[in-house]
Amino acid sequence: MSKKILLSGVKPTGRPHIGNYFGAMKQFVDLFRSDDYQCYFFIADYHALNLIQNEAEMKQNILNLAIDYLALGLDPEKAVIFKQSDVSAHTELSWIFDTIVTMPYLMRAHAYKDAEAKNREINVGTFNYPVLMAADILLYDTDVVPVGQDQKQHVEYARDIALKFNNIFKKEIFKIPEPIILPNVATVPGTDGRKMSKSYNNTIPLFATREEIVKAVMGIVTDSGGTPTNGIPANVYAMHKLFKDEKDLKPIYEANIGKYKISKEMLIEDIDVFVRPLRERRAELTKDTDKVIEILKDGAERAEKVASKKLIAVKEAIGVL
Ligand code: ADP
Ligand code: TRP
User: Are residue 52 and residue 122 in the same domain, yes or no?
Assistant: First the structure.
């Protein structure tokens, strides 16, 4: 029996942080390792183009994200690792979907509403974001899409668009995908207690150096809002429990009530134990970037084969072939 198809993507918008990892990327690795799926992991560079409009930065971010994927243990022999812009079927299908998706429907997207609240002169790419994402997913007969909580609605858009297309053109062209969202992962807090996010400058990079870890952890706000329960620093604890089982962690914190420096030092050690092997693998991969570029090229060829077949079926269904 053939394996179920898993697909996910990440935007190359800068160094991933531990919020990205525990909120979204960890499940890529876990599900890939389970060996239950044929996996596609891609670099959503055309989605990132809404934000990164600089040649050198885009190039560097793409390469970095490819290295990140590999350093996390995604094996390019087994998984197809590629970048979105290399497979033109994504943007072509996105246009076809544009013709069946309505504006009021896209206006209901949370991401659009948030972007619009910040900037009324929102670009068309941001508005159309869920349509391109639907194309990304539907081209590969994807069964499951592991994503962070905030992407759930986008996967629902992909489901709706698949159903609508199949219905209009009276053919079962697209499979209906399911999201996979990690249960119990609350938003990972940043060093200032707000959601960890690149845009808040409160992150701990996933591949941080030890110095970066020390600096970030020492900077964690311990008393903002005065809500540490019983002298336990809430922000430090919330981050720590990502790296250590709570049943081991709680007694340690309870034995060190009020001693914030000690809890921070323990957290630094636990983060470093986790990050060190990732960091070392990343450093190794960085030595041979030509090989990384070769991996992306090979992945694009493999993805292209699958995507172009689906696009032909779509073109037949709509009557242009
Ligand atoms: P950022 O806010 O740093 O720009 P992104 O919006 O690029 O992060 O997020 C990429 C993915 O990582 C999303 O799917 C999101 O669910 C997840 N993610 C980002 N920040 C966090 C966080 N603080 N806690 C949990 N998940 C997060
Ligand atoms: N929108 C996703 C994010 O910001 C990235 C993405 C683009 C994606 N296309 C996708 C994720 C397709 C899963 C499937 O994290």
Answer: yes
Q: Relative to the alpha carbon of 187, which ligand is closest?
A: 1
Considering only CA atoms, which residue is closest to atom 19 of ligand 1? 20
Q: Residue 58's domain is classified under what CATH number?
A: 3.40.50.620
The label of the residue with tokens 């160094």 reads 15
Residue with tokens 């709680």: 250
Question: CB of 18 within 8 A of CB of 212?
Answer: no
d(CA 202, CA 195): 8
One domain for residues 145 and 179: yes
* Cα–Cα distance, 311 to 58 (Å, whole number): 27
Q: How many domains would you assign to the chain?
A: 2
Contact 132, 47 (CB under 8 A): yes
Domain region containing 263 = 198-283
pLDDT in tens, 35-88: 999 999 999 999 999 999 999 999 999 999 999 999 999 999 999 999 999 999
Same domain, 98 and 239: no
pLDDT tens string 281-310: 999 999 999 999 999 999 999 999 999 999
SS3 assignment, position 9: strand
Ligand 1 neighbourhood includes 146 CB (under 6 angstroms) = no
Cβ-proximal residues to 178 (8 Å cutoff; 6+ apart), any chain:
143, 144, 145, 155
Q: Which ligand is nearest to the CA of 191?
A: 1
Pick the closest to residue 209 from 268, 128, 149 (CA basis): 268
Q: How far is CA 272 from the centre of its chain?
A: 22
> Which atom of ligand 1 is nearest to 17's Cα?
3
What confidence tens digit (pLDDT) does each residue in 163-197 have?
Answer: 999 999 999 999 999 999 987 777 888 999 899 99
71-94: b or e for each residue (b if 16 or more CB lie within 10 Å)? bbebebeebbbbbbbbbebbebbb
Same domain, 146 and 243: no
Residue with tokens 């508005």: 127
State whether 107 and 220 are in the same domain: no
